[in-house]
Amino acid sequence: MLPRLLPIICVCTLFASFALISPTTAEQKTSGSCVQGLDPIRPGETASAVHDFRCFDTFAEVIAYLSDGQVYVADSIEPHELTEDIVDQIALASDRTVIGVQWELPGYVTDRPNGFDNFTRYTFQSDACNGYSYGRPSMESGWNNVIQSAQGSSGCNTFEHWDGTNWSGDRIFCASSCPDMGTVNDRTPQGGGLCSLLHRGGAAPWAG
């Protein structure tokens, strides 16, 4: 609940238990540990096409889904424990490249008992942000005005956020990580909204 408003043969570590997912249940959820698949922004356009969106009860289920069940982690893993090694294993297992994670609390915190959630973006573009950008002019339903920290991955070292839709309102220019969104934290602008952009290097010239 939201209370306020991005095949391998073996892996280095195998835990005794791992997550099993139910795609049907995941597709029906709109909160929890969510994933969204994005295409790179095409020339002449300002937003990525979305080819996947679903939510799970735990982040371990997210990793199981992204890796087609081939990367095993502890059931208790949290998004801040996602390493580039795990990201690389996911990419080898399924061709999905994790490009960024957003949290509903500052400091990359997930408070599951109180319903504070996380949002992972991925792409099938293996070069990630090397020559490509990814962005959405608004958040998915139920996710407006709740993102308070974010972290890029796979070389996506700029994770910009705006407190309005369509690249409007106050802007937070993050490097690869933002433990706090400052003035954008939990903001509820008139009309609601939040949008974000993942890329490498300086600001996107068409956004803000």
- Backbone structural class: alpha+beta
What spatial form do the alpha-carbon principal axes imply? globular
Query: How much helix is in the residues?
Result: 10-25%
Largest sheet: 6 strands, mixed
Radius of gyration: 16 Å
Order of helices and strands: HEEHHEEEEEEEE
Q: What is the number of beta strands?
A: 10
Strand content: 15-25%
- N- to C-terminal distance: 32 Å
User: What is the average per-residue confidence, as pLDDT, rounded to a whole number?
Assistant: 75
How many helices in DSSP terms? 3
Uncertain residue ranges:
1-27, 188-193
Strand order within the widest beta sheet: 2-1-4-3-6-9
Task: Give the topology.
Layout: H1 23-28, E1 33-38, E2 50-56, H2 59-66, H3 84-94, E3 97-103, E4 118-123, E5 134-136, E6 149-152, E7 158-162, E8 171-174, E9 177-178, E10 195-199
Parallel strand pairs: 1-4
Antiparallel strand pairs: 1-2, 3-4, 3-6, 5-10, 6-9, 7-8, 7-10
